[in-house]
């Protein structure tokens, strides 16, 4: 019974992304399978070389790069959103599967969390 | 779900009272669920939803006190209500134990809410029939 946690808000705009990530890490910590999906402006979480200290925040890039270590099954990003925000293999963190967002994709998961 | 199927629910509230409709929509859902024979395993406050657990909420007398309404509901039906510890501490909702730990001047967690980790929510995902979310827009 896998859970899909969707992050659709840009990093640093509010705390829903961080709190979504906490949920994903908690599931993984209790050996519950979980995948993270980034959609809309949320794909900017995946951008390399974020300078979070300029807005007095911690970089979310570091948190995310730890996701596989914590046991998160996969990091996925919506193809169209990546195109819209100019994210590609060169400027995106490694280990992300770019996929087409669809109802079929969402239906594969028993539980879907979208805090936004 | 057929009308005859009885379910166990966990309600996750992420919208704050007086900023969103989430707490009152969730309370209406909870009352309807119990009235129809369903069970509520627990209520989990997350993100801005933790403001619902403030004992200091004091709306004008001609408005509903949603914090008090939830306290009464949880107490009268013996349902566990949890406020996520990380969300709560960020937003200044603390119990006596956290007050002492962080040497804060006061505590304000309303009874019967308790402070807990995300493990309570994980347990719901694993064991409740349905986990229903009430967000800022809902």
UniProtKB/TrEMBL annotation, chain A:
- SUPFAM superfamilies for this protein: DsrEFH-like
Q: Which domain of life is it from?
A: Bacteria
Tell me the InterPro entries matching this sequence: DsrEFH-like, Sulphur_relay_DsrE/F-like, Sulphur_relay_TusC/DsrF
Question: Can you tell me which family this protein belongs to?
Answer: Belongs to the DsrF/TusC family.
What's the protein called, per UniProt? Intracellular sulfur oxidation protein DsrE-like protein
Organism source for this protein? Marinobacter algicola DG893
Automatic annotation (TrEMBL), chain B:
Q: Which SUPFAM superfamilies match?
A: DsrEFH-like (SSF75169)
* Keyword tags: Cytoplasm, Transferase
Where it sits in the cell: the answer is: Cytoplasm
Keyword Transferase present in the record's keywords: the answer is yes
**Molecular-function annotations in GO:** sulfur carrier activity; sulfurtransferase activity
Signal sequence extent: none
Q: Does the keyword Ubl conjugation apply?
A: no
Q: What Gene Ontology terms for biological process does this UniProt record contain?
A: tRNA wobble position uridine thiolation
Gene Ontology CC annotations of this record: sulfurtransferase complex
State the source organism's domain of life: Bacteria
- Write out the similarity annotation: Belongs to the DsrE/TusD family.
Q: What is the name of this protein? A: Uncharacterized protein
What species is given as this protein's source? Marinobacter algicola DG893
Q: What is the lineage of its organism?
A: Bacteria, Pseudomonadati, Pseudomonadota, Gammaproteobacteria, Pseudomonadales
């Amino acid at each position: 019974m896998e859970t899909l946690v969707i992050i659709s808000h840009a990093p640093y705009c509010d705390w829903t992304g961080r709190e979504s990530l906490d949920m994903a890490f908690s599931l993984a910590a209790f050996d519950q399978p979980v995948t993270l999906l980034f959609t809309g402006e949320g794909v900017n979480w995946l951008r390399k070389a974020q300078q979070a200290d300029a807005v007095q925040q911690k970089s979310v890039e570091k948190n995310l790069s730890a996701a596989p270590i914590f046991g998160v099954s996969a990091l996925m990003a919506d193809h169209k959103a990546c195109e819209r925000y100019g994210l590609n293999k060169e400027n995106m963190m490694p280990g992300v599967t770019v996929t087409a967002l669809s109802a079929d994709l969402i239906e594969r998961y028993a539980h879907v969390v979208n805090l936004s | 779900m057929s009308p005859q199927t009885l379910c166990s629910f966990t309600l996750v509230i992420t919208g704050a009272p007086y900023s969103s409709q989430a707490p009152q929509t969730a309370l209406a859902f909870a009352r309807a669920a119990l009235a129809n024979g369903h069970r509520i395993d627990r209520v989990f406050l997350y993100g801005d939803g933790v403001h619902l657990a403030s004992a200091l909420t004091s709306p004008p007398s001609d408005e509903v006190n949603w914090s008090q309404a939830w306290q009464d509901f949880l107490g009268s039906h013996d349902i566990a209500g949890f406020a996520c510890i990380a969300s709560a501490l960020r937003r200044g909702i603390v119990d006596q134990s956290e007050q002492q730990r962080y040497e804060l001047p006061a505590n304000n967690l309303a009874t019967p809410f308790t402070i807990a980790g995300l493990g309570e929510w994980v347990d719901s995902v694993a064991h409740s029939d349905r986990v229903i979310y009430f967000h800022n827009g809902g």
